[in-house]
Design a protein that fits this description.
With 288 residues, the protein is α+β, with helices and mostly antiparallel strands. The protein has two domains: 91 residues, Phosphorylase Kinase, domain 1 (2-Layer Sandwich), CATH 3.30.200.20; 186 residues, Aminoglycoside phosphotransferase (APH), C-terminal lobe (Aminoglycoside 3'-phosphotransferase, Chain: A, domain 2), CATH 3.90.1200.10. 42% of the residues lie in helices and 19% in strands. A five-stranded antiparallel beta sheet has the order 1-2-3-5-4, sandwiched between helices. The protein has a two-stranded antiparallel ribbon with strand order 6-9. Strand 11 and strand 12 form a beta hairpin. The radius of gyration is 20 Å and the shape is globular. It holds the Pfam family Fructosamin_kin. GO terms for molecular function: kinase activity.
Length: 288
């Protein structure tokens, strides 16, 4: 692997001596490394089997978050070119320095990100959620976008993978037909990180929160908050700081499980039937 890393850095323009290559654990999709050369200190991700543009889409998402200016993101130095034998992305190494107020700063920063608005829901280009395609395009209707580009698309993938048995499929189709019953169509489209679980942020120098591994699009801000609650990992300080900037809507508790359904379908498609019972519980909650 040192040879591969050295070749990547050489292509990027760093031909200095390689001092250290250490695996970084925690990701489900790619191999990741902390890399130190005589010239600089990097974070490198490599994937020989991913879609050829997956790292370019990651770099694009980080740039969009950077432009919003609400939270820090790592600087991207280099992305594998089209036609490369394997995909890779090289970023700055962000040293971990958590502070007692890091989560509160993350909450405030996320609320500020959710003030970066657009006139439509979605995104100009498709991207990825994990290693799965995430179709976008622009829509003027949030329920329609959610139906066609999020829940409906993941349902199609699940059926192709044999993970949508007849009762689950029937309930999901019923839910999609009645989506407007629960999902509001008046929320301002705002920039979302799109895949914000506890592993997709870190506390950098001086406790500064950084966002990583985005799946950016514009949607209802509470779609993002619902996912943060799905698997836990965020403290009450995070939510209190968020609400200080942006209080939650009156309908949030009613729509939260439905918003979480998208991410459970993603996990069903990525990791298998162990997520099926959670999908079924939400479907029964809404449509019986």
């Amino acid at each position: 692997m040192r040879h591969t890393v050295k070749a990547i850095l050489h292509e990027m323009g760093d031909s200095s001596s390689l001092i250290e290559v250490q695996p970084v654990h925690g990701g489900d999709i790619s191999q990741a490394f902390e890399v130190r050369t005589e010239q600089d200190h990097y974070f490198v991700k490599i994937n020989r089997n991913a879609a050829p543009d997956i790292f370019q889409k990651e770099a694009d998402g980080l740039q969009q978050l950077r432009q919003a200016g609400a939270l820090s993101v790592p600087q991207v130095y280099h992305v594998s070119p089209a036609g490369a034998d394997h995909g890779y992305i090289v970023m700055e190494w962000v040293p971990r320095e958590p502070a007692s107020d890091s989560e509160a700063r993350l909450g405030r920063g996320l609320a500020q990100l959710h003030q970066y608005t657009h006139t439509h829901y979605g995104l100009a280009e498709d991207n990825y959620i994990g290693k799965l395609p995430q179709p976008n395009g622009w829509q003027t209707s949030w329920p329609r976008f959610l139906r066609e580009k999020r829940l409906g698309y993941q349902a199609k993938l699940a059926e192709e993978k044999g993970r949508l048995p007849a009762p689950r499929k029937a309930r999901l189709e019923k839910l999609l037909d009645r989506l407007e019953q629960w999902v509001p169509d008046h929320q301002q489209p705002v920039m979302l990180h799109g895949d914000l679980w506890s592993g997709n942020w870190l506390a950098g120098p001086n406790g500064e929160p950084y966002l990583i591994d985005p799946a950016v699009f514009y949607g209802d801000r509470e779609f993002e908050l619902a996912f943060t609650e799905l698997f836990g990992g965020f403290s009450p300080r995070f939510y209190a700081a968020y609400r200080d900037v942006q209080p939650l809507s009156d309908y949030y508790e009613d729509v939260r499980p439905l918003y979480q359904l998208y991410y459970l379908l993603v996990h069903l498609n990525l990791f298998g039937e162990s997520y099926g019972p959670a999908v079924d519980r939400i479907l029964r909650h809404y449509v019986g």
